Amino acid sequence: MHRFALVLLTACGSVQTSAPDAGSTADAPAAGPVAVDSISPADGATKVGVLAPITIHLTGAADPASVTPASVKLATVDVGQQYGATLIAYDVSYDDATHTITVAPRGPLARATAYQVDVGGVTAAGAPIAAAKARFATVVNPITSWQSSSETGTYEHDAAGLITVRVDSSLADHSIEDWSQTTRGPGVVDIIVYGGAGTDGTWRTADDTVTTHLHYDVEPAGIDQSISYPGGGAKAGSYTTVARDAQGRRTIARYRSAGTDGVVGNADDTTSSHGDFTYSGDWDALYVSYDGAGSDHANNYSDFDYDDRGVLLSIDAYGAGADGLPHTADDVHYAHEAYEHDARGLSTRDVVHTFPGDATPSYTSWHYDAGGNLTEVQQATTGSDGIVGTADDVITYVERHDPTL
To answer: Cα separation of 207 and 202, whole Å?
Structure first.
């Protein structure tokens, strides 16, 4: 079983080298030193599709054996709107006839994420080729609206497609129920949630009532932190810290209260719960949840099953039983979540079964355009027949996304 946690891999995969056609001769190195001529997507490119090809063109022939995942790397340089690191598994190939290196991710790239291609260690006729790199950002495909059985919401975005404003309204009369505003800085995201129209009775004016201020610090390595400030005041309420290892893999998540002083990291803080991630190899992981700060008695745990492309296959959730240990005989299997994908590796459906006796499972479906851009997400429950995707299913929630941003 491949189990999963959010992982940052600098390289993974095998090298594939194409040989010249029978009877042909590989190009000789160009006059002067061979260099990187271009990288696609280009440095600074934005709105790059999650299925976009990644190629490096050289001015002459390279030594095929030097083109490896160690000399041509693909890695995330930030996590965009994601919280945590991003899976990357890819193969590298070299075409001697066109002097082109191709980096082929085994699954789709993550949306709203910056990537960097680094070339360093490739040689030509035994001499090193000058290092080169390019950084690009993938499409966001931001949500533009959502609707449930009783509520609806709309969003505003900046030029990059990142959410700046969310407004939630009653579906019956479209009156505003709350709204939020998001601002961003380097490694920082702040969301202010407003739950009242203030004394003037008009929403989105200066006297609106703040219900919550959410502050996120996302570090490239080390610790990510999110803090909630009730009422938008100076005192923190609860906060979460997530530690990651050198590979970007989550190692522990702690959920804490800031105590009576409302200051994060002081002696009166208490840990309400925490979760530990353990790994076997790059792709296998187990997440175990505990009450409080101790790790001697687990409440529940989850196994995440991925294929070798980094594509999620299933999640199984268990209660840890009276002994508080995962993977023992008294554990209770209470949920199974199975993912379906298209040939491109894009998730198309996620079906959740709860135990025991779940006769009407729920599911989520994702819809894309021809370029792999997200257009719509639906959540539904199966009808009386208990079969996913039939006429009596009930859609409970719909999201619409902009495939152009």
So the answer is: 9
Whether residue 160 contacts residue 66, with contact meaning beta carbons closer than 8 Å, is answered with no
**Helical segments of 160-240, H only:** none
pLDDT higher than threshold 80 for residue 366? yes
- pLDDT tens, position by position, 297-352: 999 999 988 888 778 899 999 999 999 999 999 999 999 999 999 999 999 999 99
| Token pair of 72 as six digits | 């041509």
Total residues belonging to the chain: 405
Question: What strands lie across the sheet with 72-76, from one edge to the other?
Answer: 72-76, 114-119, 132-137
Give the angle 55-59-62 at the CA atoms, nearest 5°: 75
Comparing CA positions, the residue from 65, 134, 64, 74 lying closest to residue 99 is 64
Cα angle, residue 286 at apex, residues 285 and 287 outer, rounded to 5°: 125
Which phi and psi angles does 252 have, rounded to 5°?
Answer: -155, 145
3-state SS assignment for residue 369: coil
15-137 domain in CATH 3.40.50.2300?
no
pLDDT value for 31: 52
- Residues 106 and 309 sit within 8 Å (Cβ to Cβ): yes
Average pLDDT over the chain reads 88
For residue range 199-242, what is the model confidence (pLDDT) as tens digits? 999 999 999 999 999 999 976 556 789 999 999 999 999 999 99
Contact 237, 260 (CB under 8 A): no
> Which pairs with CB-CB distance under 8 Å and at least 24 residues apart come from 264-272?
264/225, 264/227, 264/236, 264/239, 272/238
